[in-house]
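Crash report, auto-generated. Payload:
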Amino acid sequence: MCLGIPMQIVEIKDFNARCEAKGVERDVSLFMLQHEPVNVGDFVMVHVGYAIQKMSEADALSTWELFDEMLRAAESVDG
Amino acid sequence: MSLTAQHWLKQLHALDLKKPIKIMNVCGGHERAITMAGLRGVLPTMIELIPGPGCPVCICPEEAIYAAIQLAIQEKLRVVAFGDMLRVPVNVGKQEIRSLEQAKAHGGKIYPIASPMEAVQIALQHPDETVIFFVAGFETTTAPVATLLAQGVPDNLLILLAARLTYPAVKMLLDTGEAKFNALIAPGHVATVMGSEEWQFVVTEHQMPVAVAGFTTESLLAAIYSVIRQQLENNIFLDNCYPQLVSTHGNPTAKKYLAETMQVVDATWRGIGKIANSGFVLKNSKLDVKSHFFDYSQEARKYAGTMPPGCECAQVVLGKIYPNQCPLYGAACTPRTPIGPCMVSDEGACRIWWSGGVRTGRFNFLR
Ligand code: SF4
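Recovered output after restart:
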């Protein structure tokens, strides 16, 4: 529930965005980012369907790498 | 492990540590990243990493979960809740319904959701029914809910609010002298929303090192290095090791909506009791389920509000014992047969340690 996932904005309609992370698309609310300009192509940190902050592409990539590592680690232990 | 992570490890091993330092984190995401990266195994033995109050599901009042179950079963209302909440057990007799999951199996209209927006969608799909959105979570969840309320929700959507703030539990531990740690890693995404300034009190009031960390191994190691250096050099300050997302004042829009829709009040934490200024109530009482239906959370019950019998979750959450110091860890309590919320929730330290491969119990770490 508390896991933040970086996503890239592919489409914006009002305060709703279609965002993508590693091939998975989701609807994300941009309502919490009204204090700053947000554009298609930007990366955002998403929590429970809401973008809480913009971020750089490099930071998004390093977080995705971390998730991959964690998934691998989780798969290698049973239970 | 990346080059920068190895660089930080080298730096950490080069430090001249004369006595042990206990560093607490207050975020399930941090604990997961630390455990999955195996950081405890590669750090100098003088450095202890303690999981602390980082799991909102674990401390969600038992009475609130009980109320959600009763609203679904007795009032026959549609109840939506974050998926993590469904398996958390309440303290009732064996014949009674013990969790939202069991309530669902008994015909309760209970739906797990992953985003507050789904609660609105479900309310719109069922315009002639009352839909209850059971909200547990820390600031990273509460702010989106506040934003949703500020945007406006359908009339048939009511809120059962059990949201909590993160820092007051740390403040309580420090103020009462119960703290079992000498330094703190502050939660990166809570600070993204609320601002790093929320953690300044650790320095000003308690002269304790603190650093905000992100979720990569590098950011965590940087924060660990920072707090140790602060202590060794006796130069205590609030460090920000997650500047990519965290600013001093946080997200102004999120904070505006939180202030508009919710008020901060003293609130109870399961198994722990009341903590000052640690919870929220809705400013618009019309949205509050308690204004429309019987408040089942107030019902007198044996063991209301406590952890399940034998479960040491409250001690685990407060960083007073490690998960595997609970006598039930890995014995009666595993993710398949969880006894307490810390083994149910993905953010619970017991669950995280189990999925991290900790199978042995009771090594005495917290000296
Ligand atoms: S191991 Fe199970 S019973 Fe023990 S503290 Fe953790 S959740 Fe509670």
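Post-recovery validation: Chain A has a mean pLDDT of 87.
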